[in-house]
């Protein structure tokens, strides 16, 4: 009880600091902030950083120390040690551990996993400096920001397509791997003049990577997986947002989520000019558009993908007019099917049927809650049919036969399960029916 009260007090103190920094930065866009390093070392900031890192979970870094290990050894002593290291100036980050996660297209995405110690300090730094930059960020940026989400971005894109026809579907080639460190530090220094904070960020950028036991230096880029990387990415691309708002807003509306963005334009000429302007801006940031993945789309003839949705203008069945529609794209459907298949394979036969249903609910609910904002009735029905087929296959395999009697038994169980266990596919059908 005492620890819970102390945790709430730390939370309130840290949020009050954030509000003060945000108000000060909002009042004066040219102000540069100093004496922020001492706030990163505060016990309430470190405690909140630990709580947020623990909530996100994740594996350990190259030191092999996990969140569970730290809890067993004592969180208080761990945070005291971090605070002392920072105050004495003895902190040096360790290289990130390189791992690869599979992508739906068969390729692998490289991620860099810092140690838990480094993640806590990065989160503490983010808590302190994020309000300073958040006060300046443009409305066109939606990724990894407080009170902003991908759902807001996809909904706004659909609204803007009501009276516009062309879209610049842009892709930055190797964004996180090609961020220029000198340019990034110059952008950070525009609002922060505390040398110790700048030195801290520079250390994280140049900490290096360990890939299969081999260490390599990092001369550019930020590791995907670092706690502070999303904020640094937004700071870097804020130049793009700001320039577009001041100089190019007449060409179309920009919507950006991290390095993924689209520009909705009225005409083909505007879209062509938008592509030219974006190329010039990115050249100043030492970035380039992907020549194959960047294209101009006439939404009357073809569609485009953005944040998991596929957009296209189609004729309404009611009046025959063209309206923008959006539904889960092929990659999103493949991803959720892979998650469903993983929990209904033969290697997990030791689980009971109801345990499998609970696992499937976890997989499907998050997917469903994200895509329910679109025109997804058909995709929900297809997913529901796929879930039924996978569970039936799992059920019959568990019974050891495919007889007619076993099939009847499964149908009865599945019907009862929907009533008693609130099976996710049943809920999807209900949502799908409301999306007609």
Automatic annotation (TrEMBL):
Protein keywords: Nucleotidyltransferase, RNA-directed DNA polymerase, Transferase
Keyword hit for Cell membrane: no
Pfam family, one: GIIM
Sequence ranges assigned to domain Reverse transcriptase in this UniProt record: 82-311
GO molecular function: RNA-directed DNA polymerase activity
InterPro entries in the cross-refs: DNA/RNA_pol_sf, Group_II_RT_mat, GrpII_Intron_Splice-Mob/Def, Mat_intron_G2, RT_dom
The UniProt record lists the keyword Hydrolase: no
NCBIfam families for this protein: group_II_RT_mat (TIGR04416)
Name of the protein in its database record: Group II intron reverse transcriptase/maturase
Biological source species: Candidatus Raymondbacteria bacterium RIFOXYD12_FULL_49_13
